[in-house]
Fold this protein.
Amino acid sequence: MQPSHTQNDNQTQDDSAQLKRAMSTRHLVMISLGGAIGTGLFLGSGEVIAQAGPIGAIISYILGGIIAYMVMLCLGELAVHMPESGSFGSYAQKYIGPATGYTVTWLYWLTWSATLGTEFTAAALLMQEWFPQVSMWLWTLIFAAIVLILNMSSTRWFAESEFWLSLIKVVTVVAFILLGLLAIFGVIHYDGYSTAPLFSNLTAGDWFPQGLFPIFTTMLIVNFAFSGTELIGVAAGETKDPAKNVPKAINTALWRLLIFFVGTIIVISALLPHELAGLNAEGVSSSPFVTVFTHIGIPYAEDIIRFVIITALLSAANSGLFAASRMMWSLSAKKQLPAIFSKLNARGIPYIAVLVTMLGAMPGLLSEQFAPEKIFKNLLGIAAFTMVIVWMSICWSQFNFRRTWYKSGHRKSDLAFSVPFFPIIPILGFIFCLITGISMVFDPEMHVGFISCLVFIAGCYASYAYFYKSE
């Protein structure tokens, strides 16, 4: 006889209670922003502009923000009702199926493991501009050690450190947008231009220089840029008063991200020709942020911004290691991994899960021997595609949860936080995420990552069927 949903909910929440509830709303918001404002914005944004054109990139990011908001509304309803550190995997297990929950948990682990590789790779490439004689192997190991130490601290200390790390890049993005707008309207000087406003680049190559199709094909990169917002759901199990703090954090983080991303794209698009914005222009280390600040003429701007971007990348990796290790802890708590992975130290940290997850970041070391841009693109593709699958599972889980909620005699008003316009929001969120995932097929450079993800998913279902078919 299967246990009831209420029994399952209570059991998993009891498991989550082993972890320390030490996070507040400001921690949740900054952890969410910290996970999102990293490679996807500082480096991936230029690639979107180069492919879709300025106007196309703006449309892509607005659509990406809408998709992210629909998914996070679904997550908010689930996380408030069931604040668990296992989050998406636990929801999928209850409301889609045990094998899917198992697979989703592993996929989210893979998402952040691959993302760790992109963050370390990008940070090491930027450091090489300062110290070209130092091997990328060394920089990657140094950054991995820093992130590992931060994650091995207490939950409270981790949240506090992530708050300040994230604040650095939030302030940088705000300064970038404000200074960029001042340059656009001629209030401050911008190299190469003497007249304002500087909006000519927005439509210099026509509104959509390569047609409308690149808006579709770049949506995977855009969705990856918004990934990290769902960290609110992972952290809900270690949050004080989740019924109050989770909804507030979701709304605050999503609107700030939309403003940050769209504002950044407008500034970059106005101040840089779109064909020079992408990664292929001067390599992955040539972030459009560095280029724009250099042209504005701020003293030592290039070094300052490079430092900020490195800090941002480490912050995103810090959040990613936290999220992925909690997924591994969740699998162990459900007895789907050996008990050692859910073992906690005296500070309430699943330290074995943290250490093993860090090993998933090691593909970043391959950049020393192979083309950094190729490694970066494939890791980004794997992380983005697996994230899309996880987002689809959130929408599907909420859809089934609400139907179960109604069938059990409850009403919408009984929920502390509910998705508006049900079932339209979860259905649209699922469909848009599915379309985004399919877009990966149309990018030849991501075919290796796409096939790898499909093999990984098949392997998860097969391993569950083999090891846990009796459950």
